[in-house]
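Good morning,

Attaching, inline, the backbone tokens for the sequence recovery test we're adding to the shared suite. The designed sequence is right after.
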């Protein structure tokens, strides 16, 4: 079976490796400021999100662990 070089690099985890990161922003929801945490992939697609009125480390870590479990490390 023939496999192209670009596909082979993608499969082996080369430069085109799938990645995601956490993003934290402040958004106005119903006229009130909220802290919004998002797990975003390398193409900008939102994988998970969570909003809270106050910035909370515990909530951010919960989202991180949930995203890591669901979308791989």
């Amino acid at each position: 079976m023939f496999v192209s070089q670009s596909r082979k690099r993608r499969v082996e985890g080369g430069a085109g490796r799938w990645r995601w990161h956490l993003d934290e922003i402040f958004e106005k929801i119903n006229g009130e400021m909220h802290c919004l945490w998002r797990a975003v992939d390398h193409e900008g697609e939102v994988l998970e999100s969570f909003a809270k009125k106050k910035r909370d480390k515990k909530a951010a870590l919960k989202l991180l662990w949930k995203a890591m479990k669901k979308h791989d490390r």
